[in-house]
Amino acid sequence: MAVYAEENLPKALKESPAFKSKNYKQALINAFLEIDRQLGTPEGKKELQKINARSPPSNPHFPQGNADDIAEHAGCTACAVLITKTEIYIANAGDSRCVLSKNGIAINMSEDHKPELESEKSRVEKAGGYVEDNRVNGVLNLSRSLGDLEYKRNKKLKPEEQMVTAVPEVKVEKISNECDFLLLACDGIWDCLSSQEAVNFIISKREAQPKISKAIEDMMDYILPNDINEKNGLGCDNMTCIAIFFKKIK
Prior knowledge:
Largest sheet: 4 strands, antiparallel
Number of helices: 10
Shape: globular
Strand content: 15-25%
Number of strands: 11
Structural class: alpha+beta
Mean pLDDT: 88
Strand order of the largest sheet: 5-4-10-11
Distance between the termini: 42 Å
Low-confidence stretches: none
CATH class: Alpha Beta
């Protein structure tokens, strides 16, 4: 699912009429919904099958060559950033997070879409679902995603009203000399570090090591051996992180 989004979301964004008219907020929303639409089509299923066939054969849930049900029962979060000359557009669906460092201060540019959030829980219940153990219908531990089509089949409801929705939350920020960098990471990072802790770590590492990828690598290495997951009562989740640094305007 994540590979499908990676390969198709940029194209869907650029082909949106809203993108061509520079309505970037709507273009991002349209792109997310277009990916969800594609996943339910024969063409989308065929492409998922190709992606699945080249994935490691150890996947216990979906045998290679059989992708008919992947988009029904699996999904992925999506946190995307579009940067113009003057603005940053952040679109997020799911429990990944985008954080902006401004003069070293962490500012959350997205909300973690967890089912227990009152606004998310309300939508789930209005759509006929329930939240149990902080999971949609006791199963899914996030309330927005691409895919997971089994939660989006109520034909009487709009996409934004479905039990689980692909409609992203979009925030806009002006680019200024106060903007240091953006961090985009999945919940495996945020389960272990606060937004400010992650920002502080990257800043400290960048002072000694100018290579961005090494700073991120060091942060992940810090999380694992220090048993932060275990101390928080969490399992060791997957970790993905991207950092985008801004050049200062002279």
